[in-house]
Amino acid sequence: MSYTPNTFASLATWLNTPKGFLITMLGVAAVLVALGFFTSTMTIAWRELKRHFRSLPSYLVLAMFLLYQGVVFFMLIHLLNTPNAEPSPPMRWFFGGVIWFYPLFVFVVSILTCQLLATEQRERTIEPLMTAPVRESEVVLGKFIGTMGFFMFMWAWTIVYIVILKYAGGGQQINPGPIMASYVGTMLISGLGVALGLFFSSITRDIILSLAATFISLFLAFIAKLLMVFDVVKTQGDKPGKFMGIVSSEWVVKLLEHTMIIDFMDDFSQGIVDSRNVIYLLSGTALCLFAAVRVLQLRKWR
Amino acid sequence: MSNSEVIRIEGLTKEYPETVAVDRISFSVSRGEVVGFLGPNGAGKTTTLKMLTCFMPATSGNATVAGFDIATQSLQVRRSIGYLPEHNAIYDEMRVAEYLRFRAALKKVPWRKRGEYVDEAIHMCGLKEVAQRVVGQLSKGYRQRVGLADTVVSKPPVLILDEPTSGMDPGQIVEVRELIRHLGKENTVLLSTHHLPEVEHICDRVVIIDRGRIVLDATLAEIRKSPEGKKRSLEEVFLDVTETPSSFWHPEVEEPEEEPEEEPKEKPKETPEEKPEKAPGKEPKEEPEVEPEAEKDENGDGDGDAEEDRS
Known about the structure:
Mean pLDDT of chain A: 81
Strand content of chain A: under 5%
Helix content of chain A: over 70%
CATH class of the largest domain in chain B: Alpha Beta
Number of helices of chain A: 16
Shape of chain A: globular
Strand content of chain B: 15-25%
Low-confidence stretches of chain A: 1-5
Largest sheet of chain A: 2 strands, antiparallel
Radius of gyration of chain B: 21 Å
Largest interface: A-B, 24 and 27 residues
Mean pLDDT of chain B: 77
Strand order of the largest sheet of chain B: 6-7-8-3-9-10
Order of helices and strands of chain A: HHHHHHHHHHHHHEEHHH
Number of strands of chain A: 2
Radius of gyration of chain A: 21 Å
Oligomer: heterodimer
Distance between the termini of chain B: 41 Å
Order of helices and strands of chain B: EEEHEEHEHHHEHEHEEHHHHHH
């Protein structure tokens, strides 16, 4: 197998088939189980997942999420049922509709992640935790996996919508590929968000500060998107064609196009698992987790 | 190092930008010993224990716990200790048995033995009736017992307890004392506390630390018999060796001028490796300083002088 863009493209198409997707998921599950046998990571992850199911904020987030998604789904079906609507698969719009999905995402991520390490440091439970024979990386990874577990639980409820479409959709064909790609994309983007929140949670012991930092940084991406949508970037600045009078606005637009996680969902919802996007998201996640581990280790140099 | 030394501390130091919290302390704890680690508030007890449990690195000096170096073999050290922190923080949302199971898993107790170990810890610490209660709802005494159960759940050879009886009522204190005495039969225990009667009941040996330095390291028997043959309580000794301004709290007790006379006679016996009382600054040359200071102590104005100089 040669190392060409083709390899990635074929990998992406393979991932996109139900079989490839299932095999990948099984592989991921196997890795997680192996982690559980060999390290404390899964112990911490399991405890974190249980904590989510015992905390009020998590239930509020869950309720808010389901209500919001339900309303979006209802409105989508309603719109697509108007006489002059083009026939198109509803789930493509359900996942691809950035403007609907993203504000909720910002809230959900920042509320679910703000507590993870900030509370540990404030309540000093970090002391018994770190004097047990566990590494900082195991703590961070465990918390990440536990929170992702809660995200999966949250999103699992949206499968109900697909069931509704299948049995009450008037015989409309449902294409599993794009839907699976959408879920993969959702999880990848959530992963980046959770890792970012985990990082902000590690640098402070104040929950509100951690929440605000995550919220603002994720919201900035939304604002950047708005700038793009309304073409503000190109018209900004003293000189024409210069963003803030410094860099070429073309350049800024290009940068935003390639790095904006908001736009990734558009691809995923059409069934396109672009390896560039996947690698971008995964490496961003890894970077945030690594930074969080380093911040936890900082305690040793104070 | 000899095999019987489970904890060995050599010149352990913790410096902060403004202060020196722990200043070149050295002592060791042998296998099966129960050692009381005493000192006034802010003397550096908790800092020392945090360094021993690898929660905090030392600025200099080294220490071994169960034969592992705290700086380089942190995971092995943490595997062989059970540590009760000063602020006994427990996840409030978990149930007692569940929490202990979680801790046992973290401490790498094999999966098959976890249930058994947790049951033993629950039984040992008298948590049977609250095993299914949520930790957040427990009284402080019970919380403390959960913390103790956590320290013993993996059956570590070394127990490091930071004020195990704080916040307990007298009845509970007696229970915990019995528990620690029981644990001390098989384990090595390093116990920090303010509660002196507790030490007199449980410990074999006492290490007193004051302003980051060890001022006394002796067995209880050595402390009890004074040279004149009259019995001395631990409290008297404690007040003698630490620089508690007793005259400030009890204006009628103004005898620090008299006491140095009887102190120096036994001091050399008790603290052979005693550090200099007063080291002005952290000058690199330590050796020359030690001797004049030691001489001073023998001359009988070690403590008295140091106190006067400071105040």
